[in-house]
Amino acid sequence: MQKWFFKVLVCSVNVFILAYILPGISIVDFFTAIIVAVVLSLLDAIVKPLLILLTLPATILTLGLFLFVINASIILIDAYFVHGFEVQSFWHALLFGALLSFFNSLVHKKAFPREKENLIAGKLDLDKDKLPAKLKVKSKASIHPALSSIIQHAFTEYSFYTALPVP
Length: 167
Description:
- By secondary structure, this protein is mainly α.
- The protein has helices spanning 2-21, 30-54, 56-61, 66-81, 90-111, 115-124, 145-157, 160-163; strands at residues 25-27, 85-87.
- It has 8 helices and 2 strands; from the N terminus they run αβαααβαααα.
- Helix 1 (2-21) crosses helix 2 and helix 1 (2-21) packs across helix 5 (90-111).
- The N and C termini lie far apart (51 Å).
- The model is unreliable at 157-167 (pLDDT under 50).
């Protein structure tokens, strides 16, 4: 719950800043930005999965680019429900949604740097302290689920990395 409040706060700050910078997006005050962030999180949790499911063929044909259209639609729905938040056109909503997603993920990555390590440890069913150094926070690679049991077996059963001769 605390993490959700932090995400809403970060999203509301980003909404407020982007509305100030971008033409075509206007917002009355910071309280309205908080309401926009709360409604946006509810729409992302309820409406967005339904839209993704209904537009799955278009998303596959465009190799995922149609998700930008879905994000813009969610922004326009949010602007319809929240008084004091206005979006002039679909293109403004498209740019606003792309920039909002980028800045929200950037702040989230900086605020929770160990989340990726916890995700990798959860996929491997390992203790996160036993992860090899290559899989810790700085890693950009992701582990395919089919390889997780092989890697887990290799690191728990065989200590091949300690048996290698040191030159």
